[in-house]
Amino acid sequence: MAQQGEPRGDAADVAGVQAAISAGRTTLGIELGSTNIKACLVGPDHTVLASGAHAWENELADGVWTYSLDAVHTGLQGAYAALVGDVERRYGVRPTTFGALGVSAMMHGYLAFDAAGELLVPFRTWRNTSTGRAAAELSELFGYNIPLRWSIAHLYQAILDDEPHVPRVASFTTLAGYVHRALTGRHVLGVGDASGMFPVDPATRDYDQRMLEQFRHLAAAKRPGLHVEGLLPEVLPAGADAGRLTAEGAALLDPAGGLRPGVLLCPPEGDAGTGMVATNSVAPRTGNISAGTSIFAMVVLEKPLSSVHHELDLVTTPAGDLVAMVHCNNGASELDAWAGLFGEFAAALGHPSTADAVFGALFTAALDGAPDGGGLLAYNYLAGEPITGLDEGRPLIVRTPGSRLTLADFMRTQIYGAFGTLALGMRVLAGEGVGIDAMFAHGGVFRTAGVAQRLLAGAVDAPVAVGTTASEGGAWGIAVLAAFARATADAGEGDAPTLDRYLTERVFAGVDLDVAEPDADDVAGFAAYLERYTAGLAIERAAVEAL
User: Fold this and answer.
1) Rounded to an integer, what distance in angstroms lies between the CA atom of residue 434 and that of residue 450?
2) Residue 282's CB: how many other CB atoms inside 10 A?
3) End-to-end CA distance of the chain
4) Could you tell me which of 457, 479, 65, 518 has the C-alpha nearest to residue 268?
5) Which end of the chain is more exposed for a tag (fewer CB within 10 A), N or C?
6) What is the pLDDT of residue 472?
7) In which band, very low, low, confident or very high, does the pLDDT at 4 lie, cut at 50, 70 and 90?
């Protein structure tokens, strides 16, 4: 692969890429993740041509995890400018248009606006766990699990708390929906992202009408006349025309004025949906695991679950098929923190190293750890974790006098800790008899080949595949969805392939996958670790109460 600033391929390839960029035959994907906003330019053959990123962080303001809209705008512009700079360095041309464009972002949360489009309260992200009463009441009413982070739980909690902004709410949406409306003027959402706002009926691929009616009657006691269906975004499936880039939208992305309006946009999606696309796991019996600041698994179901489980969300693929989701608020952030500490230690010894080198050394050491982690125990809980019933988190490393404190056991335990809550949810899914042929993994934690992938296979006791697109993640996934929308528009709806066929036949045909089969020792070792992990949750709860 070419290095940053170098063109990719030989002279003929570069000339072809230059022509595709100049003619607008590329697609652009932008994903707003929890720590990075990434832009990814994809060629007509779906390969990554260039990328750009902008780092950002959520802030805890007045007890609410949030990002300001100014930070959203600045981050979009920074990521887009970095992408354009990468294109110019590699190919000597500057893009002015694209065949299609797509936006994705962290799912769920609460962005509420008045009739003039003004934000009423600071953006409440998925990370907030202040909606316990609302989520419990809605779950009981619907007979359907409504997690704390879902948008409807945030709205209903605001109603229960009689927040003064509620009478002025004219619309609410997710982060992807907000950015999409800023670019196109349309209040729409892809069905996958919409299914994390309010339950979706997979038969209609739209909000569940029975539950909308139930919510209307429930809310009427405090807010007569509130019709939630009029506040929610319109639901669109993958491949739909979700609007065109307006002049204002083009100026938002590119204040320099180089980007022309008129670009087709695909429906905005959540990071769960783009993860499914990026791993070609939108068909039944396939699943994917996305590991970042949060970590979640998605399994496409053959039929509805028999029972309601608080550990499992029911959402959909970008095409509207039912998916069971195990969502953990805490993912790889604690691993990042420890890698940063070891990097500082290496520098103090006179051996400064890159982050990739530090991660590589630490992860490789984990392979030599005892299968059960040597008696150590790690919790990655920087925030609350609904699956284990915790409203707040305290990162912990715990050991007994007889446990082994070695680098290998420490790092294996830290990786196990990142997968611990996920494994608890996956065991609930297994208890429902859900079959999984393969799990596809993506996210930066899998960049060190053969480590996190192997340990994850042991944790979920299923084959785990990682492809060459694994580290590209959701920005590439939404760029592919944009390409699918372009292909659908060009073919006409009657002749367009399904999303599953498009991915299998046009995007992933011939893609090499590295598949890790579960190792028997890892499976047994992780099972022993998880038993200790479950018992040790009492330690985590005590830490929350004491600290």
Assistant:
1) 26
2) 26
3) 48
4) 479
5) N
6) 60
7) very low
